[in-house]
Amino acid sequence: MEFEALKDSEFKSFSHKLPLGHEISSNGQNISVIGNYRPDISIKDASGTIQIVLESETKSDRKAFIGALTHAFKYADESNVSFTLVFVMKETGSQTTVEQVANNLRPYYVWLQGVVTTKLKGTFLISDDAYVKSKECGERILSTEFQARCHRL
Q1: Residue 3 belongs to some domain of the structure
Q2: Residue 25, pLDDT above cutoff 70
Q3: Helix H segments across 1-52?
């Protein structure tokens, strides 16, 4: 069942199903010590290290995805922190699907992996419908079941 896309504030206050031993570190606040990086959600492990960044994209603007991907790589490289990036996106019918966005982003992802020293652990794209369904099924973010719902770059 399709639902209305989560607004930014709703996504930030959504009851995310975090991996065990992890907690939300930030909801849109700057997490960079040397720059300005404000992901929608950052998730840290028990040691306090950022492990996962969630970005909600409700528009199908390719440039917004490329910008968010580049910003994540820049933060990882400057902070020497390798984490997993998850885009939760609103599909717009057959015009913009998770698969199409993943295919558009993949060349940029591969290029950025070759440019920076500290690389992302991985980047996943999931529709907002699948994200909510995953939570309803009790799947923790990055679990095998969760990843099966995603496209990986």
Answers
A1: no
A2: yes
A3: 8-13
User: Mean pLDDT in the chain?
Assistant: 92
Residue 1 counted as domain residue: no
Q: Which pLDDT score, from 0 to 100, does residue 6 have?
A: 67
Domain span at residue 48?
Answer: 8-152
- What lies within 8 Å, CB to CB, of 149 at 6+ separation is 126, 130, 131, 133, 134, 139
- Quick check: is 50 in a domain? yes
Strand 122-127 versus strand 151-152 pairing type: antiparallel
For the sheet containing 23-26, what is the strand order? 23-26, 41-44, 50-57, 84-89, 122-127, 151-152
Euclidean distance between CA atoms 79 and 143, whole angstroms: 26
Domain count, the chain: 1
